[in-house]
């Protein structure tokens, strides 16, 4: 049995400079809020789906059919079961030589199209829009470090500037490395050991001239 979804209303297609991971991040934060929820639907796709609806008398009612343990029921094919046809919005993002190809679809019904347009507006502002974090980022040659979210975790360098390349030397946020050159969505880096590899552009930032603890000690000494 097919999932009980509202009919599709509109489809948009666009090519943007934004990496797929950032597209889905902003989609989750901007669009996946009540009464919709964000769900990953594939390796390069996600959706938001309506899980509750406001009644005429102002009461919110759950749309998912749940079992005795409070989990949403699924049919024999694994499709979620709903009490009514739910509204939805989907997004797929595929990297191409021209940029990230994005396909956004929205169902009929209040809320779905509005959320889709919000996402498209952010993406369509362009790489030069300095009002958002989705602007074009340049990493000049020099010291760099992994973004803070990798703290304590190892990031294996790519051996070539493409996502299907083999992974090589693992690095940490504390690993000393320098940016050498830009290669599309990747930055070629060189470690202190001389090993070279590639890191996704959105996973590194410019390294501070001195470590935080060293800066604190120097500041305290000025006392």
How would you characterize the largest beta sheet? 5 strands, antiparallel
Mean pLDDT: 85
> So how many helices?
3
What is the first-to-last residue Cα distance? 72 Å
* Low-pLDDT ranges: none
> What's the number of domains?
2
| CATH topology group of the largest domain | TATA-Binding Protein
Structural class: alpha+beta
Name of the CATH first level of the largest domain? Alpha Beta
Key terms:
223 residues, five-stranded antiparallel β-sheet, 14 strands, alpha+beta, SH3 type barrels, TATA-Binding Protein, single chain
Describe the structure.
The chain has 223 residues and is of the alpha+beta class. The protein folds into two domains: 8-124, 2-Layer Sandwich (TATA-Binding Protein), CATH 3.30.310; 142-207, SH3 type barrels, CATH 2.30.30.40. The protein has three helices and 14 strands. It has helices at residues 20-31, 112-124, 212-221, and strands spanning 8-16, 36-42, 45-50, 52-54, 60-62, 88-96, 99-107, 142-146, 155-158, 167-171, 177-183, 186-191, 196-200, 204-206. The protein has a five-stranded antiparallel sheet with strand order 1-7-6-3-2, with helices on one face. A hairpin with a 2-residue loop joins strand 11 (177-183) and strand 12 (186-191). The longest helix has 13 residues, at 112-124.
């Amino acid at each position: 049995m097919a999932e009980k979804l509202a009919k599709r209303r509109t489809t948009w297609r666009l090519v943007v400079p934004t990496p797929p991971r950032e597209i889905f991040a902003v989609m989750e934060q901007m669009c996946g809020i009540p009464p919709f929820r964000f769900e990953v639907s594939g390796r390069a796709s996600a959706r938001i789906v309506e899980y509750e609806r406001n009644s005429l008398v102002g009461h919110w009612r759950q749309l998912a059919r749940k079992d005795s343990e409070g989990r949403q029921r699924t049919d024999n094919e694994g499709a979620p079961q709903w009490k009514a046809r739910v509204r939805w919005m989907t997004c797929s993002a595929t990297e191409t030589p021209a940029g990230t190809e994005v396909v956004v679809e929205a169902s009929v019904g209040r809320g779905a199209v509005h959320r889709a347009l919000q996402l498209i507006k952010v993406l369509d502002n362009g790489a030069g829009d300095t009002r958002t974090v989705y602007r074009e980022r340049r990493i000049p040659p020099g010291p760099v470090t992994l973004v803070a979210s990798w703290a304590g975790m190892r990031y294996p360098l790519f051996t070539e500037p493409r996502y299907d390349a083999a992974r090589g030397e693992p690095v940490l946020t504390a690993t000393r490395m320098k940016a050498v050159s830009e290669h599309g969505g990747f930055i070629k880096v060189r470690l202190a050991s001389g090993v070279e590899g590639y890191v996704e552009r959105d996973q590194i930032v410019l390294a501070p001239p001195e470590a935080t603890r060293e800066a604190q000690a120097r500041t305290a000494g000025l006392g």
